[in-house]
Amino acid sequence: MLIDMEDYLKTDFDVIIDVRSPKEFEESHIPGSINLYVLNDEEHHEVGYLYKQVSKKAANKKGVIYILKNISHHLANNDFENKKILIYCARGGKRSESFYTILRQLGYDVYRLNKGYKGYRKYVTNYLQNIEHNFLVLRGPSGCGKSELLQNLTPSLDLEGFANHYGSSFGARGEQPSQKMFENMIFEKLRKIDKNDYVFIEAESSRIGNLLLPGNLTKKIKSSPQIEINAPLDDRIERILKYYGDIDKNEFVNNLNKIKKYISNESYDEILYNFEKGNLKTVAKILLVDYYDKVYKKKDADYFILNNNLEETLKKIKEIKEKFVKIF
Prior knowledge:
By secondary structure, the protein is of the alpha/beta class. It has 15 helices and 12 strands. It has 2 domains: 2-125, 3-Layer(aba) Sandwich (Oxidized Rhodanese, domain 1); 127-327, Rossmann fold (3-Layer(aba) Sandwich), CATH 3.40.50. It comes from Lebetimonas natsushimae. This is tRNA 2-selenouridine synthase. Keywords: Selenium.
């Protein structure tokens, strides 16, 4: 059965199969899907070359040979019994149709996404341009515990988690997803949250590492109720060490050089000296006091909470949310 995006959103699938090439899948895909390609990267390139340079017939013949080989392999190595299956390719064309047809003939409960991944992306882009959710924004200086609080609040949208980046000058956590994949993860999270509920989110700039906040999300964050979180300096230092304490030396120095123009030469030298000596608490303190707190743009907030006890702070935040829920 061919289904559109509205049907996709209303249906729970046990397996979502992306039949595109591994390269296409790696760049971005529907979150939760698995890559059972009908043409691998080399085969996909070869078939495309034949189509453009030789003939459509030659491309189709070679494509069928590869597709049957790959589908046979997937059938031998995967169990689809008693599972609701969704299949998609780039545009809802022959690649998804071929796998769908064979599974259908074998009696599996299988569906195919109309317009494929391109249609999915069009829907995601439009959705994120017109986000209707309500947000409660946690903001505050580095190390105040925003991320920890967010992990204990529901519903919440963890942008830094999706971006694989802490959102600061020293925030890199490894390879980041592509922009499209970042947007897909945000969409899949938001679409499952009641639009009448309030979603907790951390205040972010328009960019997290190399990724841009999509659609009107930046505007929504700025216009939503703001909860300013602060914490004692010693607690903030401990959190900084928890998240950044194992940073590689070369990475640390590289990041430090990026912010050198924002701190004094004395602070810069002191940071490097203490880092070399392993005095990481001193390093964290200097960075917080001489850099992060000075560049943090403190704006008017609607609520202020001192976070010196996780459970108490969570209780206060939930009480704030209740005020908004009752209004609506």
